[in-house]
Write a structure and sequence with these properties.
Elements lengths: L1 H17 L2 H18 L9 H32 L21 H12 L3 H12 L4 H8 L3 H29 L1
Helix pairs in contact: 1-2, 1-3, 1-5, 2-3, 3-6, 4-7, 5-7, 6-7
């Protein structure tokens, strides 16, 4: 029942955060394994949905940190004659309409550069459309902190998207 109700939400959150379909599928599976292992210890201090989102965000952040460590190691290796870094794979977020996919790629490219907390808040608020109060519960932050992170994320994205669009125009 929980899988049926939350699987698509978990997957959408994961793909928005990690921007890799395969990794998002793996994370989705890991989330539900964790949910089932921890179900008896769920303390009902939050809703089940908030708890599942929190697990999802934590799994995504763990994945991104591991990926970052791997890329740093690969970069150092490439400096000393090893392999070069692999390019980030293209992906299509399931919630994006076909005609908006090119713009979405620019957006996700910019989101990828945000600091971890700003990225998480932005995705939960604008892509998953969660209320700020629930985001605060998921991230264990105050409502003011969420509002602040969201404003900083939007400001940073405006700057980055202006740069991306300017770069795309000059490339044509």
């Amino acid at each position: 029942m929980l899988v049926a109700q939350y699987q698509q939400k978990v997957f959408n959150t994961a793909i928005g955060m990690v921007q890799d379909r395969e990794a998002a599928e793996d994370i989705t599976q890991e989330v539900f394994v964790s949910v089932f292992r921890s179900l008896l210890s769920f303390n009902e201090q939050s809703t089940v949905g908030t708890w599942i989102y929190r697990i999802t965000v934590n799994k995504c952040l763990d994945h991104l940190r591991a990926k970052s460590r791997k890329e740093k190691k690969g970069f150092l290796s490439s400096l000393f004659g090893g392999d070069t870094l692999p390019e980030r794979p293209d992906f299509d977020h399931p919630g994006i309409k076909l005609e908006q996919r090119e713009h979405a790629r620019y957006l996700f490219e910019a989101i990828e550069t945000l600091p971890e907390n700003q990225k998480t808040v932005f995705i939960l608020a604008n892509i998953e459309e969660l209320p700020q109060k629930e985001i605060a519960a998921i991230m264990d932050l105050s409502l003011k902190a969420v509002e602040s992170l969201l404003q900083r994320a939007k400001g940073n994205l405006r700057k980055k998207l202006a740069h991306i669009y300017d770069r795309r125009k000059t490339d044509k």
